[in-house]
Design goal:
alpha+beta, Extracellular Endonuclease, Chain A, Immunoglobulin-like, six-stranded antiparallel sheet
Length: 415
């Protein structure tokens, strides 16, 4: 065979090889490429949020208590849905209104408590303040779980999700580490004994703020447990008038130290009256009122007969003939710090009270000053004096609160 013939064959083979390479490149260039998924943002287990009528999520099977939606235009009732719990978040308070979750035996295990810093919720809408771990540091308040970490001890991811700060409120140590922890443990004991529980917890009112006014310290904490024997099928269909329910309403302060949660039991209806929520919205309408019980009783809230306004009796803070009949409603004087010239008021009603023009009296020196501001239901707040000395620090000096019309609302006996 001639050299020319061999060279021709080699060139032909090279041409075929180049052609095949070109075809392969064309096929590769036109093949669809599957993009790499972006890493999830916190919280890592967030799901698409259902509409309020979607009760298939077991964490909110008893209903959406406030009709919360995942809509930034509803900043005081913003729905956040996670695998571990569901909550309504209040942007301006920077804490949840309520948190709902379901507890059964599969949620409990021996996973150690998440050891890291509490987690900033970066999933909040743009422009919303994101609470961070250090906002609580040195405040005197615990980072108090609503859905507790020990209720999610079956795996590390679920436990970590309970440390996202949209599930946390500033909680007094006596409350968080005392009766609140005891009730949490009681719930887990019930589950280990063969039950399953639907829980809702929340807070209301204000004792002040942290984080330069951006993080509210709630005045009261509440919690509801609905307990069913473990079984298959639709749990809501198994709820009857005799289903066990536990409800508590507690002050968020050190007054609860060494007290039991049983001392703070109340009815679901009373919590609903104080918060405006519908806690069993998805429960059968014929059963729901039987589970909720009676409204707030006298020990919880003054009866109507004792809350009627008195006839105007304000006389320039010289005396008060109706002191013993003061209704302490809708607002009561919780305390007066005469040295600091401050007065602490509590709204004991179920509606917001406008205090503009209300009168504070010091009877020792017949001195008065006017208030401004609003108190939300259940809110307790300290008000500063007028900038001059009002109260006597050496002698008995009773105080009183009047409406702008001169009606006595609350009387403080300095003895």
């Amino acid at each position: 065979m001639s050299a020319r013939s061999n060279r021709s064959r080699i060139l032909l083979a090279l041409a075929l090889l180049i052609l095949l390479i070109a075809i392969a490149l064309v096929v590769w260039a036109t093949e669809p490429v599957t993009p790499t998924a972006a890493p999830p943002t916190l919280p890592p287990t967030t799901q698409p949020a259902p509409q309020p009528t979607d009760n298939l999520n077991p964490q909110i099977a008893l209903g959406n208590p406030s009709g919360a939606r995942p809509d930034p235009r509803q900043p005081d009732n913003y729905l956040i849905v996670r695998d571990e719990y569901v909550l309504s978040y209040h942007r301006d308070r920077a804490i949840p209104n309520w948190v709902s979750w379901y507890l059964h035996a599969q949620n409990l295990g021996d996973v150690p408590r998440y050891p890291g810093r509490f987690i900033t919720d970066t999933s909040l809408p743009d422009g919303w303040y994101q609470v961070n771990h250090d906002d609580y540091t040195g405040s005197g308040y615990d980072r108090g779980h609503m859905a507790p970490s020990a209720d999610r001890s079956a795996n590390a991811q679920a436990n970590e999700a309970t440390f996202v700060l949209t599930n946390i409120v500033p909680q007094s140590p006596a409350n968080n580490q005392g009766l609140w922890a005891d009730l949490e443990q009681h719930g887990r004991d019930l589950v280990r004994a063969g039950n399953e529980i639907y829980l809702i917890a929340g807070s209301t009112g204000s004792l002040g703020t942290l984080a330069n006014g951006r993080l509210t310290i709630p005045a009261y904490l509440w919690k509801v447990l609905l307990i069913l024997p473990t079984a298959t099928g639709d749990d809501r269909a198994r709820i009857t008038a005799t289903t066990e329910v536990i409800a508590i309403w507690t002050p968020n302060d050190e007054s609860v130290a060494n007290r039991s949660w049983q001392e703070y039991q109340t009815s679901v209806r009373c919590i609903e009256q104080r918060t405006g929520l519908d806690l069993f919205a998805a429960v059968d309408d014929t059963v729901e009122p039987l589970l909720e019980g009676e409204g707030c009783i006298a020990a919880d809230q003054p009866s109507p007969s004792s809350t009627q306004p008195l006839a105007p009796s304000f006389n320039g803070c010289t005396s008060e003939p109706n002191a013993a009949a003061a209704p302490d409603h809708p607002v009561r004087i919780s305390s007066i710090d005469k040295a600091a010239e401050t007065i602490t008021l509590e709204n004991v009603s179920t509606t917001t009270i406008n205090l503009d023009g209300w009168i504070i009296c010091s009877f020792r020196g017949s001195q008065e000053y006017r208030l401004t501001g609003r108190l939300a239901p259940g809110e307790q707040r300290e008000f500063l004096g007028p900038g001059r000395q009002i109260w006597s620090n050496s002698d008995q000096d009773d105080g009183a609160l009047y409406t702008p019309q001169g009606e006595l609302v609350s009387y403080w006996d300095d003895r």
